[in-house]
Amino acid sequence: MSHGKNKYILTFIDYYSRYYTTYLLKDKSETVEKLKMFVASVKNQFRRKPQAILSDSGDVKHLHTTPFTPEQSGIAERKNCSLMEMVRCMQNRLPTKAANKAAFELWFGRVPNISHIRVFGTKAFAYVPA
């Protein structure tokens, strides 16, 4: 569960470009609302609707993969793994309510450098030396 009391991650991935959009959900009942938001953003951006929705057999009733066969939705599964790895790295560097210290600090005995951490969605630029 996140600090905002979100329990679920809903990820939409364009299989052609691999562009992804992620929504945090407090309850699975928010899925339809987020799906509508995503479809509206695609229609607004590209003036066309998604051709298909592929689901891992959650509550969405469109195209489904066979249950317990993550290889059928490999791109989405890999993206979710990457997202969870990023979340774990960040969580280890942020203070917890229980100890009021970061897990990193408790584990390594030093305060982690978090000067590079920004709020998700913050505009950022990469410096490429000439």
Automatic annotation (TrEMBL):
Gene Ontology BP term (one): DNA integration
One function term, GO molecular function aspect: RNA-directed DNA polymerase activity
Stretch forming the signal peptide: none
Keywords: DNA integration, DNA recombination, DNA-directed DNA polymerase, Endonuclease, Hydrolase, Magnesium, Metal-binding, Nuclease, Nucleotidyltransferase, RNA-directed DNA polymerase, Transferase
Listed InterPro entries: Retrotran_Ty1/copia-like, RNaseH-like_sf, RNaseH_sf
Family annotation (PANTHER family): TRANSPOSASE, PUTATIVE-RELATED, TRANSPOSON TY4-P GAG-POL POLYPROTEIN
Stated name of the protein: Retrovirus-related Pol polyprotein from transposon TNT 1-94
